[in-house]
Specification:
Blueprint: H1 14-22, H2 29-39, H3 51-77, H4 85-125, H5 129-132, H6 147-150, H7 165-174, H8 184-199, H9 202-207, H10 212-219, H11 222-239, H12 245-274
Helix pairs in contact: 2-12, 3-4, 4-12, 7-8, 8-11
């Protein structure tokens, strides 16, 4: 996706420091992943054998939930909601239950390995194959233009987003927020996104060979914490889209890889700025008067 250069405040100004510390394009990367996936044909074969059956199954689950539970939920919400808001909140409540059921049944079992391959292939394509080599073999054949074909077998324990009982429990606890008029749905999306964000970047932690302490320290920095929240919130919104949610699982893996490359570039730039240059070195000592 071509980036548009926007005028930014001077980097050393107080306003520039505030913008860099509190605002991030992280929320755009799930959307960039859609464009990247659509425009890079080497990723398309990964859809075969996965997308159609998973989409049909998720569509059937949502259809059953809407037929059996939607009207009773709306009728209950209408008791204490304003006109129309009961329908909106009821819709998000049913979609949230559907996302929970689909996550329990299909995501970890059927989609995770495909997401790992997508993530690794994109990182290799963007020139960071040395990171992927920390976990799996990557062919050095420069004549092979397909990054996916350069990947060796997946490493033992490879995961894109690990199955989290804690996340499932929190999702169940937060679902009733959808009953709250107006503010309930945004709160539900933000709080579930806050938890989902770091899990969507788990493969990056693996190829960086982060230990648990390193991972926690990386996630809990002020800027990263909010970046993960916004990335996770957009991911949760996409997971509520009927039928297409399973496709967005794969495109979000692509977006996660692009964001990881962006983060890696930031880290490298920061290290280069901290390294002393020849001009910064003190003059050599001489004994001449």
């Amino acid at each position: 996706m071509p980036s548009v250069a926007l005028p930014l405040p001077p980097p050393d100004s107080p306003f520039g420091q505030f913008v860099r510390a509190n605002f991030s394009p992280a929320f755009l990367y799930p959307l960039k992943g859609m464009w990247y996936f659509a425009t890079h044909r080497y990723l398309h074969p990964l859809l075969k054998g996965r997308l159609i059956p998973l989409s049909l199954l998720s569509g059937c689950i949502l259809a059953i939930l809407f037929v059996t539970a939607y009207l009773p939920v709306v009728a209950f919400l209408a008791i204490f909601h304003y006109k129309g808001s009961a329908w909106v909140n009821g819709t998000f409540f049913i979609l949230g239950i559907g996302a929970l059921v689909i996550q329990l049944l299909f995501e970890g079992l059927l989609a995770d390995h495909t997401q790992v391959d997508i993530f690794d292939a994109v990182v290799v394509a963007e020139g960071y194959e040395h990171l992927v080599k920390n976990r799996r073999t990557v062919s050095d054949n420069i004549d092979e233009s397909d990054p996916y074909k350069r990947l060796g077998p997946r490493d033992k324990g490879a995961q894109f987003a690990p199955f989290s009982i804690r996340q499932i429990v929190e999702l169940v606890i937060l679902l009733p927020l959808n009953f709250v008029p107006f503010a309930g749905v945004p709160l539900f999306l933000l709080l579930t996104g806050y938890r989902a964000g770091p899990l969507m970047n788990w493969r990056y932690f693996q190829i960086k060979q982060f230990r648990r302490k390193d991972r926690k320290q990386f996630i809990k920095t002020k800027q990263r914490r909010f970046e993960y929240m916004w990335f996770g919130t957009v991911h949760m919104i996409l997971q509520l889209v009927p039928v297409l949610a399973m496709l967005f699982l794969l495109t979000t893996a692509c977006g996660s890889a692009l964001w990881s490359v962006h983060v890696e570039q930031q880290l490298q730039d920061s290290q280069e700025e901290q390294e002393p240059t020849a001009e910064d070195d003190p003059p050599a000592y001489t004994d001449e008067p």
